[in-house]
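Researcher: We're teaching a course module on how sequence relates to structure. For the next exercise, students receive a sequence and then see the predicted structure as tokens, so they can try to spot secondary structure elements on their own. Here is the exercise chain.
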Amino acid sequence: MNAAVDFNGKKEFVKMGSYGIGVSRLVGAIIEAKYNDKGEIMKWPISVAPYHCAIIPMIKKNDTSNLEKSNKIFEYLKSKNIDAIIDDTEENISAKIRKFNLIGIPYQLILGNQTDGDLFEFKEINGETQKLNIEEVVSQILKAKSN
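Model: And here is the predicted structure for the students to work with:
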């Protein structure tokens, strides 16, 4: 190809090596492996997920009780070394769930119509919804983190 000449005008062959796996390559490989086109669902492995759990409260115009509960749950999860994020937007609950399915946070804790006292809707992305109390939620997430 005669692509390079050194400072004396002598022809040199171009040499290049890439021996590392960069972060951008890993991100692309994980997305390719874990994204589901049909359901538009992305599920990050918990070891590299931006957050472990998304707290998704249903917020009504004159009732912020679910948001207040969400803030308490957020602090509790933080005390247990679980990274969480709260969706405090005023979108409807199904739009919030779709958004977090696409973002790929592995677990979702939903505070909506199905919330019953100390039992919350909890689900792993692409999994079945369970009704669990906060200690059971923490236990499941910590178990997944340790694997």
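Model: If you want an answer key for the exercise: Residues 2 and 9 are 12 Å apart (CA to CA). The chain has two domains: 4-36, 41-146.
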